[in-house]
Amino acid sequence: MQHQVSANGQSVINSGITEDYRQALVEYIWNGFDAGATEVNISYVQANELGALESICISDNGKGIKKDLLEFTFGAFLDSQKRTTFQRTSEIRGKKGKGRFSFKAFATEAEWTTRYLNKDGRLMQYSIKIDIRDLSKYEDSDEIELDQTTYSTGTDVKFSNINKLSINNFEDVSFTEYIAQQYAWFLCLNKSSGYAVKLNGVEFAYDHLIACEEEKTFDITNTQFDVTYIRWNKSIGDKFYFYMMNSYLHENFKELTSFNNNTIDFYHSVYVKSSYFNDFIFEQDPSPRLDNKPNQSDKVYKVLKRELKAYLEQKQKEFVSEVAAVDLINKYENSGILPRIKSNKYEEARRLDLIETIKQIYIVQPKIFKGLKLEQEKVIVGFLNLLLDTDERDRILEIIDGIVSLTEEERVQFAKTLRSTSMSNINRVVTMMRNRLEVIECLKTLVYDLEKFTNERDHIQKIIEQNYWIFGESYHLASADVTFERALSNYLYLLDGKSQPDKTPIENQEANRRPDIFMCRNHKVNDAKSSSMLEENIIVELKRPSVKIGIIQYRQIEDYLRLIKNEPKFNSQSRLWKFYVVSAVIDDDIKSKYETFRNQNKRYLVNFEGNYEIYALSWDDVFQEFYYKHDYMLSKFSFSRESIKAEIENVRKDAEESNTLTQRILSLETQ
């Protein structure tokens, strides 16, 4: 018999029914659970070898559809029996009465075969048909009685004339993942009751969606609440709720957590089980009840909600700190938003300070970093970086508090973080300075006490290569003991920003000479000729302590100068070149050159040709320069040179001790 729906066909089509076949199938699965089912199975029949589908069927073991209520279910549109009573549980989802028309997304005909117990306790079966060609009507069949020893209640809805879908749609992993995400929270909520969603008899797995799970017990006025917290690693098909369950694991009601409007991917569910909910009455307008049954106005419940909120706030902070903030920093790293740093320990300490500050701000209020364009992200991070490097770092708290309202706890925690990161930065600098002092003292022992066993290649060069701060901060190490051709190639790569080192050969017989250390940096220097940017380069020739710097060694450095000066690639007036030769002793012929260039007001200068300068230093000069430059910090931190000397004064006078001291220096963090 045909019946009329309380709307015309066009109204149904225009009502916003989904066009996504996956969401449509979800609607029918929910209909099964709404009818009291514990198991819903999706099956399909293949039409041919090409993968076309003959039919799709969704079966459930629910209570079925009572025929005397058909007028109020299939006959109603944008209305439903499910919405006639107030409820706040997960058991009933469909409330608008339009989910039954969702099949139009993938088929033209739908037929429900349903079995239910009538008021006499007899098991009855009948069918209902809807055709997409006229959605304003539905047709039902006469009832028949079934044997209850063979059949049970439930509903099978079969979809025919399948269009747009093939077997591939069901075998694709994206489909199984979508269904798992839609039902993971619900199946987990009802796992003790054996609830399941199946595809051709095989359950959809959802355990892989659980990022972490934790169980906790709250004891409130001698009432025990067993809490299970789950964080999902993907979006789930529901908002985030506290599910309140009685001692029989039946859901009494649910309430939204306070984290549904956050801007981070904190997907979570909280299941609370207690005998307290056996008699609990959830009400829209709660007030103390005359029968003394608890509702939301009960003191125990109010304390429970506060405890749950505090607990979930802590779990969110853990998530942000361990996952979301790490992802944010990785994103900023990969997109170039974090400022580039120079390769020394001080700059690395500043970088860690900035990262920790960004993390803490993100933990307190993720919205600050959400929805920003790339340039906006760069501005905020750059601003924080500048402010952290000044005495105004405490103003960050004031500025953030002006953007978003911080709780007193958040304000205290953030202020503590700013102080701790500052102290951490200081500690790193203190450790770096102490280690640098140890490098100098160990190097002095190698040069003066073990001079017979110390050489350039195995000892001094390795030490300077790792500690080139001795000749200046913030340099790029272009080379260490490689040929000039490769060294200069690396130099262009570093300073000119080329995508790869220049492999064009240098036509000079000196190109295969090996400078010990070649460092470079691009910065402003005091230049009498102009105020433009200069590229400063330092080439260091290290001599073993037993070698005196004389004319032969000086000529070697001059050869380096000529090679650079005569190579067109490197003789720009914007490049400054400094050549250092270092050993324990300098002979009188070289010392006499100091007087020749004294008018240049540059200590240790022994030759000067435009932008090319040669310096000769003894190791004692190098060590004294270190003490002069760092005297303030060394005195402030009260480092004891004597205690460091005492650690190394009883050295053996052999080659093995030179190797041991060298390894000791190389193990120290000094940049």
Short description:
With 671 residues, the chain is of the alpha+beta class. The chain contains 18 helices and 23 strands.
Walkthrough of the structure:
By secondary structure, the chain is an alpha+beta fold. Among the domains are: 2-171, Histidine kinase-like ATPase, C-terminal domain (Heat Shock Protein 90); 436-666, no CATH class. Helix content is 38%, strand content 22%. It has 18 helices and 23 strands. The strands form 4 sheets. Strands 1, 2, 3, 4, 5, 6, 7, 8, 9 and 10 form a 10-stranded mixed sheet that branches. Helix 7 crosses helix 8. The protein is elongated and about 120 Å long. Mean pLDDT is 80; it is low at 77-86.
